[in-house]
From TrEMBL:
Gene3D superfamilies: Periplasmic binding protein-like II (3.40.190.10), Winged helix-like DNA-binding domain superfamily/Winged helix DNA-binding domain (1.10.10.10)
Protein name according to UniProt: DNA-binding transcriptional regulator, LysR family
Organism of provenance: Cryptosporangium aurantiacum
Alphabetized GO MF terms: DNA binding; DNA-binding transcription factor activity
Domain HTH lysR-type, residue spans: 1-58
Length: 301
């Protein structure tokens, strides 16, 4: 039995809705449902009654919920308990950073930590939004800068940056010399993305936007690296979205026959939030120190 499966079970039990639970966990609904069925097979007991518009706990599920919460709480406390047991009072922190977080945000935040919490070593962990959110919830990352909508009362999310985004399209697709475009002009091309599980809330928003503007063609890469988009877009048969001036996706097209253009008639933005667990803001936890520095980069309003 994997500890991650217990985390998934607790979230589904709290939401009693697989789609909301999947959004809270930053993953797609289908793999979440499979993981729950895997857990039910391991325990040889059904945990949920699944109806078309209703999910309820079975007696076995209701009995497991407090046990699972207790196991997770004790598991998450292991690092601190171990340090106390061996008399290690040194503290360190891990801060997660998603690909399109502007370097200026990262650097100003680290400067704030150095000034306000001197002597606290900080390691940077780079990853996509979804795995970072899972790592924050699991206690493996203390605070993370991520993209898109963050849901769940177990997390605190503070908006730190909003950057305008545009369309990255190959020069040979017919947009050479243009200073902007409308999304409807892209209907003959495919929208290409990395694996949407890297940032589900971002890609759900993109899907809604594309459908509203009549763009139906899709191309989904198995990769979770934005660098892999460059070759596809440069070929002239697909487009994607990228920050207009910065970010890993924008940098992926440097030196490629690709233009990144503003979009007329649609406001496209990429947001960055600082995220941490609400139950770790108490004095003595490094998260309290890290959270106190977010105001140095927080976006007004």
């Amino acid at each position: 039995m994997q500890i991650l499966h217990l985390r998934y079970f607790v979230v589904v039990a709290e939401e009693l809705h697989f789609t909301r639970a999947a959004e809270r966990l930053s993953m797609a609904t289908s793999p979440l449902s499979r993981r729950i069925r895997d857990l039910e097979r391991e325990l040889d007991a059904p945990l949920f009654v699944r109806a078309h518009h209703d999910v309820t706990l079975t007696p076995a599920g209701a009995a497991l919920l407090p046990l699972a919460r207790d196991v997770l709480a004790r598991f998450d406390a292991l690092p601190d308990e171990l340090r106390r047991s061996v008399g290690d009072t040194r503290r360190s922190a891990i801060v997660g950073v998603a690909p399109d977080v502007p370097p200026g945000i990262r650097d100003r935040y680290l400067d704030a930590v150095r000034n306000r919490a001197p002597g606290l070593p900080v390691a940077i962990h780079a990853d996509n939004t979804a795995p970072l959110l899972r790592a924050v919830r699991a206690g493996q990352v203390d605070l993370a800068f991520v993209h898109g909508r963050v849901s769940g009362s177990d997390l605190v999310a503070v908006r730190v940056h909003t950057q305008p985004a545009g369309v990255a399209v190959g020069r040979r697709a017919g947009f050479e010399g243009r200073t902007s475009l409308r999304l409807e002009e892209l209907a003959a091309l495919s929208y290409v993305s990395i694996n949407p599980d890297a940032a589900p809330s971002v890609y759900r928003g993109v899907e809604t936007l594309l459908r509203r503007h009549g763009i139906r063609r899709r191309m989904e890469l198995e990769s979770t690296s934005v660098a892999d988009l460059a070759h596809v877009v440069a070929g002239g048969k697909a487009f994607t979205f990228a920050g207009l001036t910065s970010g890993a996706t924008h940098k992926a097209f440097a030196g490629e026959p690709v233009v990144v253009l503003p979009v007329d008639g649609a406001r496209i933005q990429l947001t960055t939030d600082a995220v941490w667990r609400s139950d770790r803001e108490h004095p003595g936890d490094v998260v309290a120190d890290l959270a106190s520095c977010v105001d140095a980069v927080a976006q007004d309003g």
